[in-house]
Amino acid sequence: MIFTERLILRGPQAGDLDDMFAIYSDPRAMQYWSTAPHESRAVTKRSLEWRLNDWHSRKTYFQIELDGRLIGNAGNHVDNEVGFILHPDHWRKGIITEAMGAIIPFLWANTDHTELTADADPLNTASVGLLTSLGFTETHRAKGTFCIDGA
């Protein structure tokens, strides 16, 4: 668990389902995500179950809690890639900057990563700007890296 000025960054809990569904079913939050918005709690439940299992071995992708409520996720979720998602009600409040500002030093201290990467749609200027502010630099662009519902 990591504590910041406003946030608790913690592992997933079975009781996170409703808050996770609120995030992952919101088309605004999912606009640049690698999957379509979740159409049912069953889809989100599978994601939560995967996170619960993954947490036991890796403990690097955190639930973001603010005032007792789960509002997003951030951290290292696969290989050396970091990512984040936040419920739109909390955009533009510095939440991800605060979370990643704590998570990145945690990853350097607690993993064997020699580099961290992130994948962001160039049209998602908010995320690209945030990554730049965290010290990331663009290395390349690729087309067709995600396929959602056959498109």
Automatic annotation (TrEMBL):
SUPFAM superfamilies: Acyl-CoA N-acyltransferases (Nat) (SSF55729). GO terms for molecular function: acyltransferase activity, transferring groups other than amino-acyl groups. It comes from the Bacteria. InterPro entries: Acyl_CoA_acyltransferase, GNAT_dom, N-acetyltransferase. Gene3D superfamilies: 3.40.630.30. Residues 7-151 form the N-acetyltransferase domain. Pfam families: Acetyltransf_3. This is N-acetyltransferase domain-containing protein. It comes from Octadecabacter arcticus 238.
